[in-house]
């Protein structure tokens, strides 16, 4: 190992993670699944360092190059060559866990350490449901998806633009998106942040919502910096990263590598490159502002050589994820693992197989953040209403799974097994069953367990039809959280003023 | 640990597992996922021993009770009270791995050690496909399912009655089932074995097919002994077990526990009871014939309290499976893990989510045998043609997954990452990609990776429709393996004679 696992580093500012006790946020107690030996992990680290030292990472942004030069990084033609001592020095400044605050403090969550956070799909231009098929997303759709995340207890965050609201003019789309995120729910929000200027507007709205002082000492926004693999960060990403880092907001550095296109066709080469790219982004964030809360993200799929499409839930990706998670754990950085990704256009058998094949491995590696935990279809081009609520059944199951086995004495039920229930008897009404049955098992309400006869008699309703009814029922149940009218007015004033300017 | 992990015990008879090198049979090289500490595992073992010593296991069969008494097991009212020293003494006689032979030796597989065997669904009375819905199974359906297992390379066995052929009179149904298994394919076969007399006919047919000497020295049949939990083995199961054990054929002891009904609602209690029951069956097989090749099976689901139905793919079952696998590994016994179980009536999203949630955990525990690896629907009441071929795509992916990460030097592709592909470039035509792309990724042929536009233009064909076409195409591709006409005639003669008698 290049270095010992770093000690727990508390966030320099804001609330103390140890004091954010969330009954709904799963806490990891299972052992992490690790497939690389210490020597193999060291080798992966060394090869990544070689990529950083000899290959370098392009920073196509003037201000970023200046920051790198101020921190004595060697730059040739906008390519930064980090040496490994530098990398380790700056990684040590990143907190290992921190609090992500929502508008309602009861929804605050811990990012990092042993804590797991689920967030919904982010980014698709299209939306699909049974009633209307696939179409451009609208502001109404975005609001609906925020309402679903706000209502479903297994979702811990509202994410960012869960669908692109195409009916809002592009010049001020980010403002209406951010307004929807801030007002339709009160769970933690990521924000809108495609470029530096957009990030600035997002930060301005957050300042109005939370107040300048609160914003300074709390992490209330969370941007994803996608490295444009291979080995490139562009000015849009970098200008946004700098703004978030300087405002002490969360920077999630996630290379997107499609093995065979943006990286080699091999697992090892892909993971080494992904590691180099993720670390370069995190080191840069620490140079922009030491102590910036960062997340190490892994987003990897393989190339389908017949169609050129990304393949999600592939076995190669499962193995790559295990390795990436081990690296992030070695660096003691919060780790973003894979969500319920699917290549399928619809949530049929393929879509469901892919989603679990993509996400179950994440549940094995002590993940800290799962973006796109529900709703994702068609390689991220589409969000499905039905897929969203079906995936949330998985999230409910994972909440139970992450509770681990209870080793309480009463769990043995030995007296019942040995003395109370005879051979061939049953445990249905036994004393132990009566004590525990209400809480013993997670029940997936969207899944049908009726007999085939009863199921056919009631119309042979399949999962997607049930999910169609369910998402509409959840929208009816939704309650809008209160918002101080003065704050709302101030948000609207800012937005209307910016609309005039843009 | 009650005892050190037992040394590798070769099978006393027949082919040497080390010499059965199957390119298609996956070999386990990943580390097993283990969630219990050594102390916790010891506790699980101790509690199971307490169940055997104080609760005992009912053996409702006269001959079995005699066998137990001959081996000094304490019997009161047909309940056997094993002491832990006895259990350990007899477990040590069970081989840790052995060869399961097919009619074609090229299809022989190793059961145990680091080897994984997939077998199809066994037992459903009903069959379903898109064209005809759900209906009683027929002999034609059974033949079709055998043809699919024979044709699909990711299936290593033909299993047993993949569907009950209801159009064959019940008196001699087992004979026609066994004939179909022996003649429509040449991969390893389990057999038909619901009772002692049926097992005797199955053994007689195997004797005709393989010859008496071969049968004596090879494991060509494989029965599943389902303990009737809690703590009961009935005369049907026991008489069949004794026949298989005395003929040196494989005995797979698998308690079926629906937590909340046949076992407690807790994970720990369920696993302790399941362990006691599985060990009792294996110990008894060793008493019936020392060295009998045995499998330690875990079949556990939870009870849906609203419908009373078994729930498959539940998070509680995933955790229970990890514990059972650790116990089997401690005893150095071949372990049967969970297959692609689903409660769903059809292979919609629910069916697919459940199947992966049930089977992916098996891929983490160094499994040796996966029965019901394809086709299972409706809690095992129905086999689906489309489900069968869709699940086989998962088996293909698991074959790739089980290959683990390659740590070959060329896998790093460092020269390509550092020197050949510039920042923002692509790896599509690079030298490393050209060398490896043909074999780099598993491709799921049944999954659609086209764009949404192309997919819609070609009719928006969903997974189940594609699978419907696929299974028919596989049936057309099927080639019947050669069979010596004299042997065929002898099999038919035996069957016709038995039909007269029955």
Describe the structure.
2 copies of one chain form a homodimer. Chain A is of the alpha/beta class and 502 residues long. Chain A has a domain at 409-440. Helices cover 43% and strands 12% of the residues of chain A. Chain A has 17 helices and 19 strands. Chain A has helices at 38-55, 62-70, 84-91, 139-151, 173-183, 196-210, 212-217, 235-246, 267-288, 315-330, 349-359, 385-402, 414-420, 431-440, 452-457, 463-477, 485-501; strands spanning 57-59, 74-76, 79-81, 97-100, 109-112, 117-118, 126-129, 133-136, 222-225, 232-233, 250-253, 256-259, 294-297, 299-303, 310-311, 335-337, 369-370, 376-377, 382-384. A 6-stranded parallel β-sheet of chain A has the order 6-17-16-13-11-9, covered by helices on one side. Chain A has a 4-stranded mixed β-sheet with strand order 2-3-1-10. In chain A, a hairpin with a 3-residue loop joins strand 7 (126-129) and strand 8. The termini of chain A are far apart. The model of chain A is unreliable at 1-13 (pLDDT under 50). Chains A and B meet through helix 1, helix 9, helix 10, helix 11 and helix 12 of A and helix 1, helix 9, helix 10, helix 11 and helix 12 of B.
Whole-angstrom Rg of chain A: 23 Å
- Total number of β-strand segments of chain A? 19
Q: What kind of assembly state do the chains in view correspond to?
A: homodimer
Provide the low-confidence segments of chain A as ranges: 1-13
Task: Please specify the SSE layout and strand pairing.
The structure is a homodimer of 502-residue chains.
Chain A: H1 38-55, E1 57-59, H2 62-70, E2 74-76, E3 79-81, H3 84-91, E4 97-100, E5 109-112, E6 117-118, E7 126-129, E8 133-136, H4 139-151, H5 173-183, H6 196-210, H7 212-217, E9 222-225, E10 232-233, H8 235-246, E11 250-253, E12 256-259, H9 267-288, E13 294-297, E14 299-303, E15 310-311, H10 315-330, E16 335-337, H11 349-359, E17 369-370, E18 376-377, E19 382-384, H12 385-402, H13 414-420, H14 431-440, H15 452-457, H16 463-477, H17 485-501
